[in-house]
Structures are given as C-alpha cells and as structure tokens.
Amino acid sequence: MHDLLIAPFVEFGFLRRALVGCLALSVSAPVLGVFLVLRRMSLTADVLAHGALPGVALAFLLAGLSAPALWLGGLVAGLLVAVGAGALSRATGGREDATLAALYLVALGLGVALISMGGGSAELSHILFGSVLGVDDAALLLMAGVATLTLVVLAFAWRPLVLECFDPAFAASAGARGGAWHLAFQAMVVLNVLSAFQALGTLMAVGLMMLPAIASRHWAREVSGMAYAAVGIALASSVAGILVSYHLDVPTGPAIVLVAGGAWAVSVLAGPVDGLLPRLVRRGHLAG
Amino acid sequence: MSARRAPAGLRLDNLTLVHGRRAAVHHVSGRFAPGSLTAVVGPNGAGKTTLLRALAGLHKPESGAVAHEGTARIALLPQLAALDRAFPIACRDVVMQGLWPRVGAFRGVPASERDRAEQALAAVGLSGFEKRPVGSLSAGQTQRLLFARLLVQDADILLLDEPFNAVDARTSADLLRLVRDWHGEGRTVVAVLHDLDLVAREFPDTLLIARDAIAWGPTGQALSAANRLKARMMAEAWGEEAEHCHRAA
Question: What CATH number is associated with residue B231?
C-alpha cells in the first residue's frame, strides 16, 4: 500500500511538485468550470485554450523556449479571444458562442501556421499536453498564485455571477454590473488554463476544469454544493491521476483527465441527483 | 413594508426606443404620476417590454429621455421566460437577491434582513419552501417567489412584465392583492398586461401602446373601442417599406 500510494512522492521531487501544482489548480479551476456549465458555456475553456495558441507560437518564434514568454504570449492571445468575442457579440447582437467559435478557429489556424514556420512541433505538443518534468519553482509559484487570485476574485464575484446566470435582467436592473464581472471571470478562466501548461498542458488543464464541474451536478442541488463537489473530485483525480501516470508510465495530463472522466462516469451512474442507477431503484412515489 | 413613502414618478419626454433601425417605441411622451397604478396594454410587438426595460434603465433611448421625479429605487419583474429556471439555487437565496441594493456583492446579510426574506416567502404563500430548489417549482410558484423578491427589494417604483401570465386564477388573485397593497402604500406600479377585463377592473390608469402611444389616461377612456381598433391596425401595419421618420426628436 505504502509502495503504491506514498513511496513515489517520497522518492521523486518532480512528482511532489506536480502534485502540489495540480492540487492548487484543483481548488480554483473546477469552480470556474461550474459557472461555465451553468452559463451553458461548457466548451468555452477549450476554445480559450486553443485561442491562446498563436500567442504561444509567436512567443516561441521571438523568444525561443522560454516559459515566461510562452505563458505571456498565450495569456495575451487568450484574453484577446475572450474579450474580443464578448465585445463583438454585444456590439453586433450575435450569439457569443458563435463569435467565440469564429475567433478561435482563426486563432488555431494562425497558431498552427506560425508553429510550422518555426519548425518546432515537439514544443507544440509539450505546450498542449504538458510534462510533469517541466514543473519548476517558477511554474509552481505561478499555479499557486493563480489559484489564490482566482479564489479571491470568486469570493468577491460570487453573488454577481450567480445573479447574472439566474436572472440577467434583474441583475442589470438591480445595478449588478454584469459586464465587468463577466470579464474578470473570463480572465480567470484563461489564467487557470494557461498556468497549468507546464504540468498538464493547456488542453488537459481544460479537462481538470470541466470534468469535475460537469460531474458535480450529480452530487448537489445548489451552486455552492456543486463547487465543493467539483473541487473534491478534482483533488482526488489529481492524486489518483499522478499515481496512475507513475505506475503505468503514461503522461500526467491525460492520466489525470482520464481519472476525472472516470469520476464523471461514476457520477452519472450513481450520483444522488439525477443519477441513472438511483432511478432504476423504484421506490414508489410519495403521497402528496 | 415601510408605511408612507416619498412620492416617485417617471416622465417620458418624446421617448423613442429602437431595435436596430426599427422603432419599438415611437415618440412617446407622458407621465407615470407618483403613486399611480398603470397598466400597459397593446398588441404583441407593440414595444411594451422594451418600454419597461427603458424605464428600468436597461435600454438606452435612441432619442428623448426617461426622467425620474425624485430619487427612487426601481424594481423590475422580468418575464418568467427570461429566467433560467433550471439554475441550481434555493428559494431562500432567490428571495434574498432582493437585498442586492443594500448588501451588494460582499456585505453580510443581517439577521433582520433574513427575517424579512422569510416573511416575504410567507406573504406570497411559500412558507416552508426556503430550501426547495427553484427548478422544482411550478410556473405559478416561481412567479410567487419573484414577488417575494420584489417585497424584499422594497422599491418605490415597480415595473411588472406580464406578472399574471401562465399562472392560475388563485395565484393571480393572490399576487394582485400584493399589487393593490403596493398601490395603497403609495408606490408607483407599472404593469404590462394582456387581460383587458382585469385591467378595467383593477387598474385606474392605462397606457395603450402600439409603438406610438394610442391613449394614455384613465382606463375607461384609454380602452375605448375606437382606441383598441386603432392599436390593432397600427400593429398590423408593420411594413418593410416603412419610411424614414422625419418627426423631430
């Protein structure tokens, strides 16, 4: 048991770093995921992760394989896609998801073109899928810092976000300015996805954000309960995923995402809220 | 809740509201007097909801203005359809949203305000629903819940968008009693309605609108047969070939 669960972390420093980084992210990212699900924007995180690509590629062409440069490039591009889509859809009255899709497809094409010019596809897969060996002190601080910032922002933005999701007209008439909070929220999504790029890769970080959030619906009937459930699932998936990755020798990002996917499947089947199995157990209806 | 209030009214000065280039509300002037109880009626697409949104400050006028008489807290009851009723939130928390003007995003909710939320739920006949998720409520119960939120909001001007749609007779009678109470307390109430019998029975003033204001005044005069016919014809004359409006802004 000790060999299976504890020893890998005692023995290898890089596994400990990966664990700490993923745990930090597990506290913040899934809560953002819950709000994305409730806003019917489940695919937004994925779109933003792809949208960051041209920035990363451009930074790679200009500065080489320097983590801060890649991160900053991705951040700027991701924010441009997020903010641009919101502003454009408000200005033209189009649907935000459609505008987002258009911008991200352009960004993706641009990113791939830029990377082929630079001739480095190994680095590309590194950014998209990550590698635990890449988690140095700076990366760890970044992940912990982003997680902390996210929690602070969420603490302040909680009521406006809930209000805006539930009843946008009331939120606006009561003076809860939706636009600013929405922007801060999207910035947090971009930050969380990108801060994970060394440990998990941006694409796999999306999995850690969304899968626990989607699963949490089957464990709670209120937003706050869903947030706790999502964080719990993400924490457990991080620990289990890193262990799976070590013992079976598969990359960390996919391992964590697959474990989270397993947790989602279990939630759909056995979750107390709208789970499939509880429905099969017929308990008769209540009288009144 | 509080007894007598400072009078607060709304005045429309040559107000024009547009969606794109199409006028939804066209050069309307008039006044919702402090303490008045006004029904806004008119055919579908007549600009009623847009007008209400403009009164709440959510729709910017293309020309003209909405002037506030006195400093007033305004509460808007959106159409039931505009709500995400599948959202995972408990009834208690929906009612407490009405506290937003006082507690905002961060301030704590004092015990007295929590009591007010409970009282509001009781006043709309939803005692014991505190922890029920909104998704488990019927349309009528959801409308009762939103009225409880209005009670907690304690506003001077109440804007109600189709408050009695999709609710049964008993619910609309109960909610109507609350509207009468608000009127009795000196609040200004503006309600978009479709049931003309109800309007004739309960609402002293009526604004009959079909983009242009057809009539605005005491309900009996505003809803005359001639005015109603005019409203229907105005609504049906919705041509793509409409000319550019040259009326002075």
Answer: 3.40.50.300
CB atoms within 10 A of CB B28: 21
Taking CA atoms, what residue in A is nearest to B55?
A173
Which domain CATH number covers A122?
1.10.3470.10
- The residue among B22, B13, B85, B1 whose CA lies nearest residue B54 is B13
**Domain containing residue B239:** 6-34+41-72+196-249
Collect all residues of chain A within an 8 Å Cβ-Cβ radius of residue B94: 166
Count structural domains, chain B.
Answer: 1
- Scanning every residue of chain A, which has its alpha carbon at the shortest distance from the alpha carbon of B87? A166
B240 touches chain A (CB under 8 A): no
β-strand pairing of B74-77 with B63-69: unpaired
Type of residue at B66: V
Q: Is residue A280 part of a domain?
A: no
pLDDT of B22-48, one tens digit each? 888 889 999 999 999 999 998 887 889
Is B78 an interface residue toward A (CB < 8 Å)? yes
* pLDDT mean by block of 10 residues, chain A; 288 residues: 82 87 94 92 84 85 80 88 80 78 86 78 66 78 94 91 87 76 87 83 87 95 95 96 91 91 96 86 70
pLDDT, chain A, mean: 86
